[in-house]
C-alpha cells in the first residue's frame, strides 16, 4: 500500500459519503489514469432502482466515456468495498489492470473473500489486487450506515 493508494482511497471514501447522504449504501469508487482521476461514482441502486447501479459500474461507464474506449488498460480502480461478482466481471471486461479496495466483503466479495475472479487463470485478463487499504475507515462507513438503518427500522415498529 502506497501513500498514493491511500490518497485515492480517501477520494473513494468521499464518494461513499455522498451515497450515505442519499440513503444509499455508502460505497464509492474512483478510476485513475496516468495519475489523474478520470471517473468517480457512488452507489445509486436505491435511487435508480437498477441492479447495475453499483459505484464501480457507474465509474467504469464514466471512464469509458472519458477515455473514448471500452478498454481501461492503464487505469487503477479504487473502491471502498471489495467488488461483487457483477462488478468483478465488469472489471475483467474493461481490462482494468489494477484494483485497490478498502473493506473485505465476506458475503459477496469476489476479489478474494468468496472467490477471486480477478486473478483466475482461466480468464483472458487478470488484475493486480490490493485489498484492505484504509480497511477500518471503509468498514466503519458501512457498519455505521447499517447500524443507523437498523435503529431506524426498530423505531418504526
TrEMBL record:
<dbReference type="InterPro" id="IPR016192">
    <property type="entry name" value="APOBEC/CMP_deaminase_Zn-bd"/>
</dbReference>
<feature type="binding site">
    <location>
        <position position="54"/>
    </location>
    <ligand>
        <name>Zn(2+)</name>
    </ligand>
</feature>
<feature type="domain" description="CMP/dCMP-type deaminase">
    <location>
        <begin position="3"/>
        <end position="112"/>
    </location>
</feature>
<dbReference type="GO" id="GO:0002100">
    <property type="term" value="P:tRNA wobble adenosine to inosine editing"/>
</dbReference>
<dbReference type="InterPro" id="IPR058535">
    <property type="entry name" value="MafB19-deam"/>
</dbReference>
<comment type="similarity">
    <text>Belongs to the cytidine and deoxycytidylate deaminase family. ADAT2 subfamily.</text>
</comment>
<dbReference type="InterPro" id="IPR028883">
    <property type="entry name" value="tRNA_aden_deaminase"/>
</dbReference>
<dbReference type="GO" id="GO:0052717">
    <property type="term" value="F:tRNA-specific adenosine-34 deaminase activity"/>
</dbReference>
<dbReference type="InterPro" id="IPR016193">
    <property type="entry name" value="Cytidine_deaminase-like"/>
</dbReference>
<keyword id="KW-0819">tRNA processing</keyword>
<comment type="function">
    <text>Catalyzes the deamination of adenosine to inosine at the wobble position 34 of tRNA(Arg2).</text>
</comment>
<feature type="active site" description="Proton donor">
    <location>
        <position position="56"/>
    </location>
</feature>
<dbReference type="GO" id="GO:0008270">
    <property type="term" value="F:zinc ion binding"/>
</dbReference>
<keyword id="KW-0378">Hydrolase</keyword>
<dbReference type="Pfam" id="PF14437">
    <property type="entry name" value="MafB19-deam"/>
</dbReference>
<keyword id="KW-0479">Metal-binding</keyword>
<protein>
    <recommendedName>
        <fullName>tRNA-specific adenosine deaminase</fullName>
        <ecNumber>3.5.4.33</ecNumber>
    </recommendedName>
</protein>
<feature type="binding site">
    <location>
        <position position="87"/>
    </location>
    <ligand>
        <name>Zn(2+)</name>
    </ligand>
</feature>
<comment type="subunit">
    <text>Homodimer.</text>
</comment>
<feature type="binding site">
    <location>
        <position position="84"/>
    </location>
    <ligand>
        <name>Zn(2+)</name>
    </ligand>
</feature>
<keyword id="KW-0862">Zinc</keyword>
<dbReference type="InterPro" id="IPR002125">
    <property type="entry name" value="CMP_dCMP_dom"/>
</dbReference>
Amino acid at each position: 500500500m502506497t501513500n498514493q493508494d491511500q490518497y485515492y482511497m480517501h477520494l473513494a471514501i468521499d464518494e461513499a459519503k455522498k451515497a450515505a447522504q442519499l440513503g444509499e449504501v455508502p460505497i464509492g469508487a474512483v478510476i485513475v489514469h496516468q495519475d489523474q482521476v478520470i471517473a468517480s461514482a457512488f452507489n445509486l441502486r436505491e435511487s435508480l432502482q437498477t441492479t447495475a447501479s453499483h459505484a464501480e459500474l457507474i465509474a467504469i461507464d464514466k471512464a469509458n466515456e472519458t477515455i473514448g474506449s471500452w478498454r481501461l488498460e492503464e487505469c487503477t480502480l479504487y473502491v471502498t468495498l471489495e467488488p461483487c461478482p457483477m462488478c468483478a466481471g465488469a472489471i475483467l471486461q474493461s481490462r482494468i489492470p489494477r484494483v485497490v479496495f478498502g473493506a473485505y466483503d465476506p458475503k459477496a466479495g469476489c476479489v478474494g473473500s468468496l472467490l477471486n475472479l480477478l486473478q483466475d487463470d482461466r480468464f483472458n485478463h487478470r488484475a493486480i489486487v490490493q485489498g484492505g487499504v484504509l480497511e477500518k475507515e471503509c468498514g466503519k462507513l458501512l457498519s455505521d450506515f447499517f447500524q443507523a438503518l437498523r435503529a431506524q427500522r426498530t423505531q418504526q415498529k
